[in-house]
């Protein structure tokens, strides 16, 4: 992710009970539409499809102060974001007109060296020092990295059927993780069926088990639910991989999973 066109500001709150630095985080390009405040950071990106423009957006109700807090571990200048309300999204607008939005912050945002300014006399003009110094600020342009790979946390049979780590034919499965889907919530509808055949792709996401497509009935950023109907019972190590519709031939990295054969999510 290339340099942002806008700046962000962190204002130090001080240490929490665990010694982590805390800062109030503000996007410096915001507007109020009468209902929500919409804040944005934009910049160029490469390495995904033909490249294009990234947009890291914060949306929250009302026109009050930012609900975002930056948390920095002792000795680090990396920070995680905590929200008391609203939502942060990453959108990648490719130069070919394709756009995709992610709802998890699976990436890093970094201040650019030499492009920051500080006030309030922190020990150093860095995120960690500002977070430890109440009232100190750091403002600047950012860049970063984003991981668009689906990231598996667990795969089980449907919870209402026992949530087992082993599956057999004609089984509903639940896949949990990050960036599993690129829609907030989608449940199959009649329009998704091809005659009497259930969909094997839903909102751009497919699930395969043992190399065979499963019927997908639910997709969200953190979960996909599917019906596995063709593979025999197996247990043991497997893997999870995804393939982006934006770069359909690029293989994703694999992760261990408790599922038969191999389970894959693609979008």
Task: Please indicate the percent range of residues in DSSP E strands (runs of 2 or more).
Answer: over 45%
Domain tally = 2
Q: End-to-end span in angstroms?
A: 21 Å
Q: How would a textbook summarize the main sheet?
A: 6 strands, antiparallel
Low-confidence segments, given as residue ranges, are 232-267
Instruction: Write the H/E string, N to C.
Output: EEEEEEEEEEHEEEEEEEEEEEE
Structural class based on helices, strands and sheet pairing: mainly beta
Strand order of the largest sheet: 7-6-2-1-11-10
* Helical residue percent band: under 10%
Written account of the structure:
This protein is mainly beta and 267 residues long. It folds into 2 domains: 7-146, no CATH class; 151-266, Immunoglobulin-like (Sandwich). It has one helix at 127-131, and strands at 7-15, 21-27, 30-32, 36-45, 52-61, 68-72, 79-83, 87-94, 99-102, 107-119, 137-146, 151-157, 171-178, 186-187, 201-202, 205-209, 212-213, 215-220, 223-228, 237-241, 255-258, 263-266. It has a 6-stranded antiparallel β-sheet. Strands 15, 16, 17, 20, 21 and 22 form a 6-stranded mixed β-sheet that branches. β4 and β5 (52-61) form a beta hairpin.
């Amino acid at each position: 992710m290339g340099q942002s066109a806008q700046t962000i500001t962190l204002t130090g709150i001080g240490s929490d009970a665990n010694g982590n630095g805390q800062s109030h985080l503000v996007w410096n390009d915001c507007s109020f539409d009468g209902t929500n405040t919409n804040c944005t950071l934009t910049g160029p990106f490469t390495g995904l499809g033909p490249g294009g423009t990234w947009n890291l957006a914060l949306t929250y109700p009302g026109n009050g102060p930012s609900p975002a807090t930056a948390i920095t571990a002792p000795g680090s200048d990396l920070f995680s974001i905590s929200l008391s309300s609203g939502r942060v999204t990453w959108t990648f607008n490719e130069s070919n007109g394709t756009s995709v939005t992610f709802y998890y912050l699976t990436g890093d945002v970094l201040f650019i060296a030499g492009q920051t300014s500080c006030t309030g006399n922190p020990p150093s003009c860095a995120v960690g020092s500002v977070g430890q110094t109440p009232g100190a600020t750091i403002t600047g342009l950012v860049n970063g990295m984003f991981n668009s790979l689906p990231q598996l946390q667990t795969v089980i049979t449907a919870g209402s059927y026992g949530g087992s780590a082993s599956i057999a034919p004609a089984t509903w499965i639940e896949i949990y993780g990050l960036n599993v889907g690129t829609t907030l919530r989608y449940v199959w509808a009649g329009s998704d069926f091809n005659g009497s055949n259930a969909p094997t792709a839903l909102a751009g996401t497919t699930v395969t088990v043992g190399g065979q497509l499963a019927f997908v009935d639910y997709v969200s950023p953190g979960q996909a639910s599917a019906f596995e109907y063709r593979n025999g019972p197996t247990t043991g190590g497997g893997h999870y991989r995804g393939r982006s519709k934006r770069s359909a031939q690029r293989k994703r990295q694999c992760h261990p999973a408790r599922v038969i054969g191999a389970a894959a999510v693609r979008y």
